[in-house]
Amino acid sequence: MKYDFDSVIDRWNTDSYKWNIREGELPMxxxxxxxxxxxxxxxxxNERLEHGVFGYSVIPHRWYEAYQNWWRERHHFDxxxxxxxxxxxxxxxxxxxxxxxxxxxxxxxxxxxVYNIFFNSIxxxxxxxxxxxLKLVDEAGNGFNGFSDxxxxxxxDIGSLHYEMDFDDLEKKLSDPxxxxxxxxxxxxxxxxxxDKATLLKVGELCARHNVTVLSDEIHCDITEPGEEYxxxxxxxPVCRDNSVTCISASKAFNMAGLQSAAVVVPDxxxxxxxxxxxxxxxxxxxxSFAVTSTVAAFEKGGAWLDELREYIAENRRLVRDYINANxxxxxxxxxxxxxxxxxxxxxxxxxxKSSTDNEQDAPxxxxxxxxxREKTGLYLSDGEAYGAEGxxxxxxxxxxxxxxxxxxxxxxxxxxxxxx
Length: 421
Prior knowledge:
Blueprint: E1 26-27, H1 39-51, H2 61-75, E2 84-87, H3 90-101, E3 107-110, H4 117-123, E4 128-131, E5 135-137, E6 162-164, H5 167-174, E7 179-185, H6 197-209, E8 213-217, H7 238-242, E9 244-248, E10 262-265, H8 269-281, H9 291-301, H10 303-327, E11 332-333, E12 341-345, H11 347-355, H12 366-377, E13 379-380, E14 382-383, E15 392-396, H13 401-420
Helix pairs in contact: 1-9, 2-9, 3-4, 3-8, 5-6, 10-13, 12-13
């Protein structure tokens, strides 16, 4: 490889949110990579830094071209310049759209398990959360719902599972007149599922039929396994295009979340006017001095770095899958081929623990499991409850392979200790 992803970067004492932990702990939770930013991006930022003046910035034509060229070449989707609106981040854009495209008391639909900040964006703005739980199925299409939905998995050998949408339930929830917005995660976080064109088309048609706007969070779209491509929701059909707001950014793929730079794609003119006004009213539509420079450099010069990163993360995913299969049979990895986040099924352990206690209030759950593993081994993972699906753990493998190996060693030790408690 041309680029170095094996070196361990010391992030202590750098005011890192991810690494704000106790000494000896290993954080593999929040979606933040432990790799240095591509040298081509750092070079462009150094040039901007050397200029020495950091006043107010505008959005130059080059920023629009960078997004347009990247999506045309990488994702086979032509984005009109007029569709693009700058925003300081995907989360600010989501919160603004929830606040300005719906009314207090409206329902906003999410598909659990899903990025936990979706819940905050809805609750904090006085809207109601409506869930359309995704279905876990095996290769034959047999379903295995978690006990959070009332169906215990027990100790059955669940094999290889992946998520599908429950369209019957989706249409039922969308048909409620109080449901006015759907937050779609594409690719899906935390499972890493890439939604195919047929699935997205059906979502678009159902939402249009019931007058529900789709807000598609596509921030993880560039982190797919080699040979895999995601499908932009707005590219699927005119119906999907004209009834959607899409949030995109270079931040996740190029590890630049702290630079606060994103874009909102709104093809429909009337809807775009609402979104543009909303973002400007909320004062999240102006770039800082490095937001444009970093994004343009990423899309213009970062392609080779990203391709090597995708290969590296894919190998990390394979390492985790093989290690769990060989050494931690109590866990299983949900199938996914996007993002650097792994969704680990721990329901066998939790169900066994639940069945061994007579007091349901004291029954162990995934949050207690993750806390136990952290306390015993220092490994810091996210619990599934935060994403609306009890019984799972989320692991971030965007780190050097030696760190992944150490994380797996700690995971095995933590699970082993938990079973014997």
